[in-house]
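Feature request disguised as a bug: please show the residue count (374) next to Homoserine O-acetyltransferase in the output. Example input:
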Amino acid sequence: MNAHDQRFGLDRRVTLALPLALDSGAALAHVEIAYESYGTLNADASNAILICHALTGDQHVAANHPRTGKPGWWTRLVGEGKPIDPARHFIVCANVLGGCMGSTGPGSTDPATGKPYAMAFPVITIRDMVRAQAALLDHLGVGTLLAVVGGSMGGMQALEWAATYPTRVRSVVGIATAARHSAQNIAFHEVGRQAIMADPNWAGGNYYGVGAPTAGLAVARMAAHITYLSEEGLTAKFGRRLQSRDALSFGFDADFQVESYLRHQGLSFVERFDANSYLYITRAMDYFDMAEAHGGRLANAFTNTATRFALVSFTSDWLYPTSESRRIVRALNAANAHVSFVELESPHGHDAFLLDAPEMNRVVDGFLRAVETL
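Example output, currently without the count:
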């Protein structure tokens, strides 16, 4: 067995041999990338699939999370007998640059000072994350990817892969994603960032080893989580039901069930995420605009591409609505790219791609099997 023969997920770290050049003009030395891999890289290295995670995700896509003990975040799509299957594929999922689950980020040690980077960490972009992933795959001996698959911010990375490394990507699956952030997306992110920075414990980002701004980060998570859901889904799950009718607290406690749910989301999030990473990654998402980087015309990002694309959206997703997917499809059509698109019915909002979605699984499975035969 070689270093990449493994049927089950294994959390690993790689230190990149060369400094990583960033869009900002800075360069990061001694970059670590944490990743999980599953399955076996075949003899001609043609079965590799890169999975890109969303804002609050990490590399633990199909194995239990080491901090929470919960199953991986995409076990509905990745695993034995699933569309992305370690019996057929060599699967890699890396914690993004700027993350907080092992990859170099604001909480990592700055080799120049011996202290955490904190806010001295350089500004990063989605393209920088993709460059780091490419360097990881170089290390793993993966030249060409069968597919890059991702939802939400993961879909942004998948699209950027096709634009930045077109000859390395045979196919892209972008789910519930967009080619740029809207003003509304940026506005919601700014509310979260301000909540973090307004927490006295943030201390200008220099809170490591002292006490993290957990209250601010929890509020940021609560605000963001609302955008991942839908009014229909919230109404069906909680409605206006109270926790108890015995005593009302006028908002000081969680009177309504939906309040209790959001508070739980916030409190559980701070156990596994770093506040500064949240600041940097949300900013990278806000900066993302594929058209801007290609003369203001999105189709230019995919000129002469041989990559095949599958785009999936959900009817109740108001964070990245179907109109954003259609915009990408129109650009791909203008670039004469091979693209398929489907809008799926779901009451679950943006988070539908993480939940039980058999129709999505059938779409992804059929698309990948078709690409494998080409």
